[in-house]
Amino acid sequence: MAEETGDPRSAGQRLRRHREAAGLTQQELADGSGLSVRAVNNLERGQTRRPHPRSIRQLIRALGLPETAAHELLAQYRAGQVRTPPPSRRPDQRVPRQLPPAIASFAGRTAELRQLDRWLEQASRSGSTGTVMISVIGGMAGVGKSTLALCWAHRVAHQFPDGQLYVNLRGYDPGGHPARTTDVVRGFLDALGVAPEGTPAALDAQVAMYRSLLADRRMLIVADNARDAAQVRPLLPAAPHSMVLVTSRGLLDDLVATDGADVLPLGLLSDSEAAELLSARLGTDAIAAEPAAAAQLITLCGRLPLALAIAAARAAVSGWPVSAITAEIAAAGPRLGALSSLDVGDAGAGVRAVFSWSYRQLSGAAARMFWLLAVHPGPEIAVRAAASLAGLPAPEALGLLRQMADVGLIAEVAPGRYALHDLVRAYAGQRAELDSTAGERLAAAQRMTGYYTRAAQTAARMLDPDQPAPVPDPRLPDVAAEQFAGVDQAMAWFAAEYQVLLTLAAQPAAAGDDEPAWQLARPLTSYFYRFSRWESLLASEQIALAYTTVDQANLARVHLAETEDLPARRGDRSGEAQAHLARSVLLWKEGDVAAAGSTGLRALELAEADGNLVLMSKASNNLGHFHAVQGDPARALPFCQRAVDLAGEAGDPAAEAYACHTLGYAYSRMGEQYLAGISYRRASSLFKQTSHRYLSAMSLDSLGDSYHRAGNASEAVGTWRQALDILDDLAHPDASEVRRKIHDSGPAHSGSM
Fold first, then answer.
1. Contacts by 544-553, CB closer than 8 A, 24 or more apart
2. 288 and 261 belong to one structural domain
């Protein structure tokens, strides 16, 4: 049948038959779905080759069909795209290049590289079948899966002109904290140029947007260190132009059975490949001069690439001959003792010997720093964090980190940021148990938490003046201080460290220790809220406002009770005011208008008692909004005007922007469209100034509405177009509603869309 083909025209025919079966005209379907008649017409004629998933779902709901019909129709539209080459990239389309550097001295694995080449060639020849190429490199820890994947990815990167995405999924992280899917997808959307304001809150919608963006691109996605198929599946594109390369200690049978993945099992190196690796790192002359010692070193390392790399790193830095390195490692074996539990498969004894030997090459201070790193949740640590962990000045800590890098126990993965292989991290944990006391580890953990708390508070205050000023803990004099030159630096720090902050906040909270959890989690709200990261807000302990944002009212109710009690016990009136603000929003969403108002008034009283101008502005703004929405804009007006004045006095443009928008809404409800326009225009300008592009567009949209109500159609359409430009640039689904307004304004004003 025609509709089973991948032609978008047949998908359009299928949509038309659904509409006709429902007895609807195109105009009636457009009215019911919120789309324009032209959008419906273009879809039915197959002129829209890449419809937005939300548009299809709106049509399906208007037709009274099940959700599965939307998935089928979207798949049919997308399938039509594979019959033609991907369109050329737009000049402004972002091209991410996220691959970490490849190892310069890569050696061996010739057969495996050829197999990956063959799979890529086969996929290129059969691209019209619509099958996404998925390759899984599986094998034990330390066998070189990531090294092989990155080496090959760099070799073929030119075949993926639209870019390369990379993520470490941390599936086997010793701390038990694999990467969260929503963070991974959100990171990919950021890399693809989607602004924070344009990213949907729900994971399903994020995945749909990610796949839509990849539908006409040829990209390479490297998913490193996956735990299972569930971690990988949301990252799979829906169109065949891209390729996904996965590494995992498991073979991910689910991806093979369900998604057609090819599997490349990776074993230990052969003797000749191991010798090639040593030659690449130490030089052929060094290996040729002592072939017996090199062969013994290969045996001691169990032919495991990680162990060979660590041994070679030490040899290269020390300048020792291979025979000296071999003798040292051989002597380390009998002294392993309790370390025999380290699980490294068939190569276990040799690998433990290499780790033990490398550890003993460190100075006493560097050895202490090494086992201290087991206290840190990972996956990466910056120099100042390491300095605080050890209670040392940053320059001294940097020197110790470089010592560890010299013997191969740690790698500098970005300037000033270091990471341990998970096998090495497990070894560090064993050394910590053997070489330190529980008191030493506890003191290190307290210094580390103190560093992150103080740095997070400093960064949050750059983003939101309402956040409390950091107060150094006199019990922790050795904690390094972070300074940020501006908002961009603060945002960059949060982007690098927020996963560590969430992990550390969850640990004391789980143990019933509220104070560190609150102090770590509260600064994160400024970062997550600014970038609309609602899922991450949910993960932040004791931050109930996140739950109200994504409508998880039951969870919010429990946490709000805790967040009101905690600051009250601490005598923190601003914190208590924030908790009451959150509760008032939740009560409003639940329809308890009276309770929302009284709770909002209590928030205002607490903010006034503390003299917190920004919180006073926010509380006044909320109360004004409540009254205006209830149909009493005259009562709302003084609250709104006070919110504007307080925010201006506090010098907080973001709070002033929100207040101006609410003031505009109150004026509009009163019929004062001219005054509403002044407030909306000011709100849009302030939102733009504070990098809230989506909210700037929403104020422009409301400004257009005010023009429209005043009978000024041309100004309304011009303003809506400004809003639409922003929303289209953000790829935001709200663009369809603004586009509908422009269309409905009539051909004299709407122009060609």
1. 544/579, 544/582, 544/583, 544/586, 545/578, 545/581, 545/582, 545/585, 547/586, 548/582, 548/585, 548/586, 548/589, 549/201, 550/201, 550/202, 551/589, 553/586, 553/589, 553/590
2. no
